[in-house]
Amino acid sequence: MNTYLVVILASLVLSWLLGIVSNYYNKRHMVSRLPDEFRDVYDDRKYSESQEYARANMRFSSIADSISMAITIGFILLGGFNWLDQLVRSWELAPLLSGLAYIGLLSLASWTVSLPFEIYQTFVLESRFQFNNTTPWTFVVDRLKGLILTAILGGGLLAGVLYFFGSAGEWAWMWCWVLAVAFSLGITYVAPTWILPLFNTFSPLEEGELRTALEAYARKSDFELEGIFVMDGSRRTSKGNAFFTGFGKRKRIALFDTLLKEQSVEEITAVLAHEVGHSKRGHIRKQLILATIKTGAVFYLLSLFLDSKGLFDAFGMEHMSVYAGLVFFTLLYTPISMVLGVVGNYLSRKYEFEADAFAAETTNNPGAMISALKKLSANNLSNLTPHPLVVWLEYSHPPVLERVRVLKNR
């Protein structure tokens, strides 16, 4: 049997199996007794509800992952990639347009397969636990906007990659690396003012005690903010959140309107301090450097496999092409992606602890950070006792119970 095919199928099955096993152990690891640290924000009923929410999500993810894996493997073994290639070739398009059509159709098929799961999760699962505020109209418009943005932005980047690998010779991977990094930085720069407002309304935080406190903290920390905005997160969910966008002088903080209803001034200031901590501790810079290195390494590896006949034989392809090789390498890269994902999550969890510590130190109020985390977990029905395997595989943030205990011991 083709070695490439064995590696790809084994990787897909292993990824699925890890998900199934981690969900199984996660369910068994749940503690029926509410941890003492959370008795001020949970009661027994709400804690039981949070565990049922976790179980429901695990059941859903196991089913969705199983169906997706079966469809992917079936498409591979039944020669779907070659069939689609023959269809696109019959249109007699230019090579670049053929590549865009081939990958575009595969992406559209993947989107179509995932759509029923998104609908179920939004309108059944999230609604069951009173999280969903999304109307059918908003859902449809969001998906259409997402498709259009993907076609324009993703299609533009893809066109550049296909062009360079089709015409730039042995240094094509280097040109693609430069293009991808520039594209990523450009999207990060324009997202706050051009992309995010397509989906949500961002209003400047009104003058008052909260704005005064946040601006005072930013000045004290020598952290320049372009603005503090309130996002209408409640249009889609009752969950609370906050995040930074942009970089350099275009840094903004966005606060969900739901967060403002749940948290005090001191708690929201602690949330801001946590995000500032990521910048002051160099986490954003380190992640950018690592992402840049990773992108270059991926394109270099891609250049080594694009002309591999064995890789094309694994998918029963009658013709070799840059666009199909790009798709096949993505599947071949699965095990490396899994390993890098685990490493990336480990670093991310480490950075979260450091940002928590920064917030506690610079606000001189670790209790505010603790209460903010506890309220967020209660409002979002977080799983307080995830299994270590699940944390290791999937969590970019440490479990909230662990974060609270570390802060209390400072």
From TrEMBL:
Record-annotated active site: 275, 356 (proton donor)
Residue stretches spanning the membrane: 6-25, 63-81, 101-125, 146-166, 172-196, 288-306, 326-347
Cofactor mode of binding and number, as noted: Binds 1 zinc ion per subunit.
Required cofactor names: Zn(2+)
GO biological process: CAAX-box protein processing
Keyword hit for Isomerase: no
Keyword hit for Mitochondrion: no
Location of this chain's protein in the cell: Endoplasmic reticulum membrane
Residue positions binding Zn(2+): 274, 278, 352
Any Pfam family: Peptidase_M48_N
Keywords carried by this UniProt record: Endoplasmic reticulum, Hydrolase, Membrane, Metal-binding, Metalloprotease, Protease, Transmembrane, Transmembrane helix, Zinc
Domain (Peptidase M48): residue spans on this chain: 204-409
Domain CAAX prenyl protease 1 N-terminal intervals: 32-201
EC number: 3.4.24.84
Classification via InterPro entries: CAXX_Prtase_1, Peptidase_M48, Peptidase_M48_N
Membrane topology: Multi-pass membrane protein
Molecular function in Gene Ontology: metal ion binding; metalloendopeptidase activity
Family note: Belongs to the peptidase M48 family.
Protein name (Swiss-Prot/TrEMBL): Ste24 endopeptidase
